[in-house]
């Protein structure tokens, strides 16, 4: 309900008078390497990204999103790792979500 159409698991919701924090983990299919299109199979690591969002009911909304970094298994590919993106929520090198930018 909070993140319609976004493929994530909601892990925690923190509500304070000024701030709403949603912590979620990406759970979509492994992405393909952006350079050679080999599907990711082996997870290198995970990390948290913070995305600012639109205010909701007078509170600032922040989304903390745990994403996975994969190895590229193709030996001839120059890219060692790549990070998954969550459709509708994260895009490469963006700190705010598409909703906030609009
Ligand atoms: Zn690759």
UniProtKB/TrEMBL annotation:
Residues 29-73 form the Transposase IS204/IS1001/IS1096/IS1165 zinc-finger domain. It comes from the Bacteria. Pfam families: Zn_ribbon_ISL3. This is Transposase family protein.
């Amino acid at each position: 309900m909070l993140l319609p159409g976004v493929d994530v698991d909601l892990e925690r919701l923190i509500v304070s008078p000024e701030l709403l924090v949603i912590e979620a983990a990406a759970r979509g299919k492994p992405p393909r390497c952006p350079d050679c299109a080999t599907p990711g199979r082996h997870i290198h690591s995970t990390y948290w990204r913070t995305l600012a969002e639109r205010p909701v009911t007078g509170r600032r909304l922040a989304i903390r999103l745990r994403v996975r970094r994969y190895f590229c298994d193709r030996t001839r590919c120059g890219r060692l790792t790549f990070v998954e993106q969550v459709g509708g929520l994260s895009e490469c090198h963006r700190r705010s979500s598409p909703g906030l930018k609009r």
